Amino acid sequence: MKKLIESKLTPLAAACIMAMSATVVQAQERYVIQIDNNGKGIVKALTQQNGGRIKVEGDGFIAAEFDGFSLEQVKGVLNNPHVKLVEVDQIRKSMAVYNDDAGNPMTTQVTPYAVYQSEANQVTFNPNAGIKVCVIDSGLDSSNSDFVWNNITGDNDSGTGNWFDAGGEHGTHVAGTIGAADNGFGVVGMAPGVEMHIIKVFNAEGYGYSSDLSKAAQLCSAAGADIINMSLGGGGANSTEENAFKAFRDAGGLVVAAAGNDGNTTRSYPAGYSAIMMIGANDADNNIASFSQFPSCATGRGKQTTTDETICVEVTAGGVNTLSTFPAGLATSSGLSADSTNYVSSSMENTGSAAGQTFFMGTAEATNAGADGKICVIDRGVISFFDKVNNCELSGGIGAVIINNEPGILSGTLGTTNTTSIPAVGAALEDRSALLAAANMNISITSSDYGFLSGTSMATPAVAGLAALVWSNHPSCTGEDIRAAFKATAEDGGAGGKDVYFGYGIVKASAADAYLTANPCGGTEPPPPPPSGDFSLSANGYKSRGTQVVDLSWSGATTSNVDVYRNGQFIAVTANDGSYTDALNIKGGGSYTYLVCEESSSTCTSSVQVVF
């Protein structure tokens, strides 16, 4: 997603937010102080006299925050008979819900976390359906071998050069998320090997115009594309551009575009057009990305205010630290194994490899002769990443592994003034115990065809690929059918119900696939099984203490139990007593489609919709 400057799209470098970590000394640290309760008052006073701010007071301990004090310094100023122990007050967060596979994509196939998060791994892509995705971006570099090149065509826009010569990493990264091949190495896309048509719209300076996108929409249509992906945008609407994408939508296509990366309420275009599905970004923990824009669905003022859910974020997908394809050799990959077990890692600095015994250096605030000839295992915190690795190298260390101090993998650099030469990789807090227990390690950093980027630019191709995946199994659908299915089955994120950050929620491919199976589109797909005899269903929706509740009533089932479905997803098996209450525990509005079937059978009632 790009920001607009003087009606132009800004350079590609501004399109994505690279995953970086700060290399400055931490300004604050918080400590837990175990105390003799009889002397609690004395210790509290001593803490405050030395600049400590008491944050928690419990039975037998207090917690205090100090500015610029190391653990040893706090122990020094709190040297008192009533103090039993001083230790770091460790941060605790929910563990990562989804993770990339461990391994080096140059030698093994790695599945990015968003594939698991979106349930794409639970749906099989049907290449015979002929679904095609048109990628309007910076080109796709032909040097990357992780594509089915026989399925890829392209066009050049005026002055942009060959579509297969990438102008930077952006377009290649986007295309990999959509359709990288399932071939045993690299990454796997949402719709592996899907047909793609590439249109290169950015010139050498890294920008294009609304007219370029208008022409690109026509070229996508001429190429027979079903889906258009635009990981780009800017300010200000343009009617010619809007009409071009409306025509594509009206012809049965689906257009997705990035919401923007400024983390504010600005409505970017072309995502802000009603004909285009606006995509936001979430992370691997199902949290909204801090950079993901969230424009209002409302326009006008006072009595003239109108609401349109198609001009704001409709759904989100994984777009933080997304691993995908790069032009060959423009990224780096890391490898980390401990006692012959592979672990997820990130390349921080210095290409090369190292293998040897391990030495734990704590936070590596000083040199230590024990590290000589060994791989330093280091905790994050207190001093910069560079200082840690530098102390390891000055101690004779041959490589460094820095472990994160919060859930997730550590991604960072050693800074622009790095003078170290040993390979240094980042590791996840979740692997800390295993890494500290390991006797031997092997680490490597090599040039790579795969790298990490963050942005709504990365979430948008995830949705485009998921649309191709689901659509390939329901070819009689239109783009609007796929759009509606994604919204009907998205996993709610953030506040209960639809909101400006997540829209309807995080896209779930398997749920959308099941929804379209239960509620098939017109055309060649078979109709749903007719109700058996007088097997019928009614539904009554209401709110109890502000939350949504639906009472279902049915008759005519012949089995002892029945299966209940909401939005195409199985939610319960219950006794065939004619009634079931679905307490959704969701506030606000929403639309739900219910179906009751005889247990383990395709004999079902007709679908009934409830709207709040």
List keywords for this structure.
globular, eight-stranded mixed β-sheet, alpha/beta, 11 helices, 612 residues, seven-stranded parallel β-sheet
Word description of this protein:
The protein contains 11 helices and 34 strands. The chain is α/β, with parallel strands linked by helices. A hairpin with a 6-residue loop joins strand 15 and strand 16. Helix 5 packs parallel to helix 6. It is globular and about 80 Å long. Mean pLDDT is 87; it is low at 1-27 and 523-532.
Helical proportion, percent range: 10-25%
Assembly category: single chain
Strand content: 25-35%
Question: Total number of helical segments?
Answer: 11
Strand order, sheet with most strands: 20-19-26-22-23-24-25-21
Instruction: Classify the secondary structure makeup into a structural class.
Output: alpha/beta
Q: How many β-strands, per DSSP?
A: 34
Largest beta-sheet details? 8 strands, mixed
Helix-strand layout with pairing:
Layout: E1 4-5, E2 8-9, E3 28-35, H1 40-49, E4 53-58, E5 61-67, H2 71-77, E6 83-88, E7 109-110, H3 113-117, E8 132-137, E9 152-156, H4 170-179, E10 186-187, E11 195-200, H5 210-222, E12 227-230, H6 239-250, E13 254-258, E14 277-282, E15 298-299, E16 306-307, E17 313-318, E18 322-325, E19 331-338, E20 341-342, E21 345-349, E22 352-360, E23 375-379, H7 385-394, E24 399-403, E25 424-427, H8 432-437, E26 440-448, E27 450-453, H9 456-471, H10 479-489, H11 509-518, E28 536-544, E29 547-555, E30 561-566, E31 569-575, E32 579-583, E33 591-598, E34 608-611
Parallel strand pairs: 7-10, 8-11, 8-12, 9-11, 12-13, 13-14, 14-17, 22-23, 23-24, 24-25
Antiparallel strand pairs: 1-2, 3-5, 3-6, 4-5, 15-16, 18-27, 19-20, 19-26, 21-25, 22-26, 28-29, 29-32, 30-31, 30-33, 33-34
